[in-house]
UniProtKB/TrEMBL annotation:
Endpoints of the signal sequence: 1-18
Protein name: AB hydrolase-1 domain-containing protein
UniProt entry tagged with the keyword Signal: yes
Keyword line: Signal
The organism of origin for this protein: Pseudocercospora musae
Keyword Lipid biosynthesis tagged: no
Superkingdom in the source lineage: Eukaryota
Length: 587
C-alpha cells in the first residue's frame, strides 16, 4: 500500500495589524460578556503515566498502580480555521475548569478561542482533579481561604497590603471574600496538589511531553505554577511548541520571593527553580551537569516596589532550545507577580530567549490580579493581547502548510478489481518546517494525527459524483462527512490524475523543494514530501502551467480545496492574483 500526501495552503486568512517582530493591541472586537457559549464537540483521553508497585497507607498488601498520567479534554469547534491547537495548563490547586467558565458564569478562554477557530485541549495536572492521586505518593497541600483572598481575589482589602501593587486591584467580580457567592463558587473549584513540587514537575514533564508527541505541534498556555512546565516543554520539544504563553509563570528564577508581606529579599528554601526558569534540568550552552554549575548573582531591585533578581554572571549560558520557541509573558498590573515577573524575563533574555513581555497596564488594561483570565475584563486580555500575538506567529510562519488529504490505494484499484478497496481521506493540519530535518518529526506524527473523516468504497466502474447525485454513493454504506460541505465520490482515475499532477509536475518543475529520504514508516508512508512558498506557486501552477481549468476545479473536491487554500494564502501573503481566478464565486 502506498500513501501519498497532497498539500495546499493553510487556508488561514490573517487580518492583523501585526508585523514580524511586533504585534498590535488595538483589535476592534465585540468582547461583551453576553456571548453565547461556543459549540464544540468533546472527547477526552489520558496520556502519560506508568505503573508502580506500592503499598497504600493502612494496607499491608502491595499492588500495582498507575501514577503520573494526565486527563486531557479535547474541544473541537464546528469549524477549525487555525493551524495549531491550544493546550491549556492551569496553576497550583486548579483544574482545567479554570478555562471553561468564570466563577460568575461568563464564558472562559476556551470558549473564546474555540469561537476563533482553535481546537482546545484542557488538561488536569497529574495527581490532581481528574488525574488520579495515589495515596501515599507524597503529601498533599491546599490553599486556605485567607491565602486565596490575600493573593488572588481581594488583595486590595488586606491590611497591611500584601504588596504595593495590590492597591490597584479592581477587576475581580464580586467582593472576593468568603460569603460572597462568586468567591464561594471559585473556592469550591479549588483542589489538592502534591506538596512535593519536584515530584509534581517530574510527573508532568513526562506526561505533557507525551501529549505533544500524541497531538503534534501546538500552542501552550500556562498559568502560575505550571509556568515552569511550559519552559520545560519548550526545552524538550522546541519543534512542537509553536508558541508559549506564560500567564504570570511561577517565579522568580532560582528562589521564591519572600513575601507577602512585601520585601525585596528571597526565602532560602534551597532552590525552588534551581535551573533558573525550571526545577528540572534544561539544555544550556555551555552545558551543565547540575544546577550548581550555574554561576549566579543577586542584583538590586529595579525600583522600591520590586524584588531583587537572581541572574547569571557573565558570560551567561544560553537556553538553546527554549530560544527556538516564541515566548509571550503576561503580567497583571495588580497581581503579586508584578513584584518579580521582570526577573523571569531578564533571566530568559540574558540566556538568549526572545520574550514579548506585556505588563497589562502598558497596553491600557488595568486593575487585574493573578487570575486575570477569570476577571471582569478577561476577554479583553484574550482579544487585545493573546489573540494578536498568535496571529503574528501565523503571519511569520509562512512555510507552514496544510495536509489536505491522505489517499491510500494499491494496483488492484487501477485495474478495477471486483474486490472492494477503501480510500481513506482526511483533512488535518501539520507543519512542515523549512528544514528537511525538522520535517522528519512532523511526518512521523502524521499517521497518529490524520484521523479519517470519510471512508468510501471503490466500485468496479470508474465513476465520480457529488454527494446526493451519485447512485453509487447513495448506495454506499459510508456517510458523506468530508469537512461538512464538500463531498465527493472518488475513482482510481481521479486519484491517479492528482497523484500525477502533484508528484510528477511539481517534482519536475520544483526539483529543489523535495526533502529526500523521508521514509517514516514504510507501510504508511513511502513517498517524498515537498515544502515551499505556496502563495507564488498558486499563481505559477494555475496560470503558467495551465494544468487546471475553472470548470474542473468547480466540480472536483481536490479542486475545491486547491482554490480555497490558494485564495486564502494569496490574501494572507498579498500575492497578486492576475486573472482573478480565486475570487470568482463559481470557482
Amino acid at each position: 500500500m502506498t500513501l501519498t500526501l497532497f498539500w495546499i495552503s493553510t487556508a488561514l486568512v490573517v487580518q492583523s495589524n501585526a508585523c514580524f517582530g511586533a504585534f498590535a493591541f488595538d483589535r476592534n472586537e465585540d468582547i461583551t460578556h453576553n456571548v453565547t457559549e461556543t459549540y464544540a464537540s468533546r472527547t477526552y483521553f489520558y496520556v502519560g503515566g506508568h505503573y508502580v508497585n506500592a503499598t497504600l497507607p493502612g494496607s499491608n498488601t502491595t499492588g500495582q498502580y498507575m501514577v503520573g498520567q494526565i486527563y486531557v479534554e479535547k474541544l473541537l469547534p464546528r469549524s477549525v480555521t487555525r493551524q495549531y491547537p491550544i493546550i491549556f495548563i492551569s496553576g497550583n490547586g486548579q483544574t482545567s475548569t479554570n478555562f471553561l467558565n468564570t466563577p460568575d458564569g461568563r464564558e472562559g478562554w476556551a470558549s473564546y478561542f474555540l469561537r476563533h477557530g482553535y481546537t482546545a485541549y484542557l488538561t488536569d495536572q497529574s495527581s490532581r482533579g481528574r488525574s488520579s492521586f495515589l495515596p501515599g505518593d507524597g503529601g498533599l497541600t491546599a490553599f486556605p481561604t485567607a491565602q486565596e483572598e490575600s493573593l488572588f481575589t481581594a488583595p486590595e482589602k488586606q491590611r497591611p497590603l500584601p504588596y504595593p501593587q495590590s492597591a490597584l486591584h479592581t477587576q475581580w467580580p464580586g467582593a472576593g471574600l468568603v460569603g460572597d457567592p462568586i468567591f464561594d463558587a471559585f473556592y469550591a473549584s479549588q483542589v489538592q496538589a502534591l506538596s512535593n513540587g519536584t515530584l509534581q514537575a517530574m510527573y508532568n514533564n513526562v506526561s505533557y511531553n507525551a501529549l505533544l508527541d500524541k497531538i503534534g505541534p501546538s500552542f501552550v498556555v500556562t498559568h502560575s505554577q505550571s509556568g515552569p512546565y511550559g519552559f520545560s516543554l519548550a526545552d524538550a520539544r522546541p519543534a512542537l511548541v509553536k508558541g508559549l504563553i506564560s500567564l504570570e509563570p511561577q517565579g522568580p528564577p532560582i528562589e521564591n520571593w519572600n513575601g507577602p508581606p512585601f520585601q525585596s529579599d528571597y526565602s532560602t528554601t534551597g532552590g525552588a527553580r534551581s535551573y533558573g526558569l525550571t526545577p528540572l534540568p534544561v539544555h544550556y550552552d555551555p552545558p551543565v551537569s547540575s544546577a550548581a554549575e550555574l554561576n549566579i548573582e543577586l542584583v538590586a531591585a529595579r525600583n522600591p516596589n520590586s524584588s531583587k533578581c537572581y541572574r547569571q554572571a557573565e558570560p551567561a549560558r544560553q537556553l538553546v532550545n527554549i530560544a527556538k520557541v516564541p515566548n509571550l509573558l503576561i503580567t497583571s498590573e495588580a497581581g503579586y507577580h508584578a513584584v518579580y515577573d521582570y526577573c523571569t524575563v531578564d533571566w530568559a533574555i540574558q540566556a538568549g530567549v526572545k520574550v514579548d513581555h506585556v505588563p497589562l497596564e502598558t497596553v491600557g488594561i488595568n486593575g487585574n490580579g493573578h487570575f486575570m483570565f477569570l476577571e471582569q475584563n478577561s476577554l479583553e486580555i484574550a482579544a487585545k493581547v493573546v489573540s494578536p500575538w498568535l496571529e503574528k506567529l501565523a503571519v511569520s510562519n509562512s512555510n507552514s502548510i496544510l495536509c489536505v488529504m491522505v489517499v491510500s490505494w494499491d494496483s488492484s484499484l487501477t485495474n478495477h478489481s471486483s474486490h472492494q478497496q477503501q480510500i481513506h481521506i482526511c483533512i488535518t493540519h501539520i507543519a512542515i518546517n523549512p528544514s528537511c530535518e525538522a520535517a522528519q518529526h512532523d511526518l512521523a506524527m502524521l499517521h497518529r494525527r490524520c484521523v479519517p473523516l470519510r471512508f468510501a468504497r471503490l466500485r468496479p466502474s470508474d465513476s465520480f459524483g457529488m454527494c446526493g447525485t451519485s447512485t453509487q454513493l447513495e448506495a454506499a454504506s459510508y456517510p458523506c462527512t468530508l469537512h461538512g460541505e464538500h463531498h465527493s465520490w472518488l475513482s482510481a482515475r481521479h486519484i491517479s490524475y492528482w497523484y500525477k499532477i502533484f508528484e510528477g509536475v511539481l517534482s519536475e518543475r520544483f526539483p529543489d523543494i523535495f526533502c529526500p529520504g523521508l521514509d517514516v514508516e514504510p507501510r504508511i508512508w513511502s513517498s517524498q514530501v515537498f515544502h515551499f512558498r505556496l502563495a507564488q506557486w498558486c499563481v505559477d501552477f494555475l496560470y503558467v502551467d495551465e494544468l487546471l481549468d475553472c470548470e474542473y476545479l468547480s466540480s472536483d473536491i481536490f479542486g475545491h480545496w486547491l482554490v480555497y487554500g490558494c485564495h486564502a494564502l494569496l490574501e494572507a501573503e498579498r500575492v497578486e492574483d492576475p486573472g482573478g481566478l480565486f475570487r470568482q464565486t463559481n470557482c
